[in-house]
Amino acid sequence: MVYHRKPTWFIPEGQATAESAFVNRRQLLASMGLGGAASALLAGRANAAQPGDSFTPTPERNPDYGIGEGRAMTDEKVASTYNNFYEFGSHKQIWQKAQALDTDGWTIKIDGDVEKDMVVDADDLIAKMPVEERVTRHRCVEAWSMVVPWVCFPLAELVKMAKPTSKAKYVQFETFLDPKVASGQRQGWYPWAYTEALTIEEATNSVALMVVGAYGKVLPKQFGAPMRLHVPWKYGFKSAKSISRITFTETRPVSFWEEINKAEYGFWANVNPDVDHPRWTQATERVIGTDERIPTLKFNGYGEEVAGLYSDALAAKEKDRLWR
Description:
By secondary structure, this protein is of the alpha+beta class.
């Protein structure tokens, strides 16, 4: 007999109940066999689902992923109004400015060390993917945290679709660039567009996600509509928002914050309570929406799934002070 051992951070579904949520018509089209072509066609219509619309019917929650004992889901109003989105400014109440982002007809370019470069419609891509709901923890490098029910699909599925060549060792994610809309991008001292990167091994780990919704709704703009990266075992700045380009490459990219200040924001950025940020401790974190301050977990509690990505040999090779 085969037994399935639950991860150490597993919590029963009944202990992390989301608000009433419904899946959007794009997934319904996919389940009816209409797939990406019909979804892309409807995307340009006035009645197409917009960021913040409810999904219809409900996406199935993956029972193998939970948040661990002692954690509760962050209230939607709190999580959706306390955001980092430097494209629109550096303060946390950026959600209103982010509504200026136009996500209609959004496309994503996939290029680099792949069998064939392509440009895909975001709706079409989502319709082809195994979309589900996962409740995961999110830990910011600024030492605050939240727990969110994401509507998402495994990043590994997108990697598979892209068909990277044997040369591809890294995946770079680039956000949109439109300073007319995003006032933060007019600040020339930042190296726009925002980029982040993972190794192929990290990108194909089962915990790495592409997010297309939250709290049962099409991904609100302040969360990074229409599609964002979510890497739960890394600090939040690794999870690029509003992705417009995905590039597979043999050479390790230098990402946005690493270029600005490598001493504070290194490439690896794995959550580690034993390695402090130069300006504050990482041993604890503030749970937004509460008065709690709780101990931080190594790899944000996902070590069982991801620790094997980081061998002693790799650690010894790395010169990054922020190797974690």
